[in-house]
Amino acid sequence: MPRRVITLIGPDGAGKSTMAKRLRSVFGSQGKYIYMGSNPAEATHALPTTRAWIALKRALGRSVHRSGPPDVDSRPQAPESTVGTLLQHVKSLLALAMRVGDDAYRLLLAELLARVGYVVILDRHPYADYYAHRVAARDGWLRWGDRLHGFLLDRAYPRPDPVVLFDAPADVLLRRKPEGTRQALEARREEYRLVARHLPNVVVLDATRSEGEVWASLLQVSARLLTDGQPWGQFAAAGPGPEGAP
C-alpha cells in the first residue's frame, strides 16, 4: 500500500518549502504540512517546552534561531581549556534533548495523522539534514551531544520514505535566496546527494527548471508515491493552480 507521508528535502533556495505547502493544498482538509527544520519562525508544530524556551530567549533579547547543520567552514573546534570543553559537551547534551524531543513529537504526529487517513508532507527531515555531519562524519572534534545525535540518527530515527530531493547548483540557489556562500551551498547540495544514496526510495527533481515545470513533476511523482490513483484523481482535479498556492 502506498505511503501517506512524503518528505521533501534540498538546500535552501531549491524551492522545497514553497512546493511542500502547495502540495499540501492539493489535498485540502485531508492534507497536513509539518516543518521539520530548526527555524522557530517556520515551525508548525513544537513541544510546549520548546515554545516556552523560545519565548524566554525572546524576552531576554537573545537570538531564537536554533542552528541547523554546520556550514563546511564552521565546524566545531575543541576549546583550549578543560572547563571550556566540558561546558561545550554539557551544552550540546541539553540542546540535543530539546532537538530530539521536538523531532520525536513531529515524526510521531506525522505517523499518527497518516494512519487516520491524512496525507502528510514533511518539509525537511533530521536524518537527511544531519546525516553528513553526524552519521557519516568520522574526522574532527565532536561534542558529546553531537556524537549521541549521530548514534540516534543512525540507530533510532526512522528513515524518510519516500523522499523527493530538490537539486540545483549553488549559483541557482544564491540567485533565488541570497543567503550564505557559494561554497557552503555547494557543500550542502553534495550532502543531500550523499544521503540520497543511503535512503530506500528517493526521487531527484531538477530544481533549476521553471516553477511550473517543477510543480508538474512533483505532482506526477506524488501521485505515484502517495496514492493508488483513484483518490489522487479527485484531489488533483480540485487542486489550486499557481495563483492558489499558499
What does this entry look like structurally?
- The chain has about 250 residues and is α/β, with parallel strands linked by helices.
- It has a single domain (about 5-245), classed as Rossmann fold (3-Layer(aba) Sandwich).
- Helices cover about 50% and strands about 10% of the residues.
- It has helices at about 15-25, 50-60, 80-115, 125-135, 145-155, 170-175, 180-195, 210-225, 230-240, and strands at about 5-10, 30-35, 120-125, 165, 200-205.
- It has a 5-stranded parallel sheet, with helices on both faces.
- The longest helix is centred in the middle third of the chain and has 34 residues, at about 80-115.
- The chain is globular and about 55 Å long.
- The relative contact order is 0.21.
Helices and strands in order, then pairings?
Elements: E1 5-9, H1 16-26, E2 31-35, H2 48-59, H3 82-115, E3 119-123, H4 126-135, H5 144-155, E4 163-167, H6 170-176, H7 182-196, E5 202-206, H8 211-226, H9 230-238
Parallel strand pairs: 1-3, 1-4, 2-3, 4-5
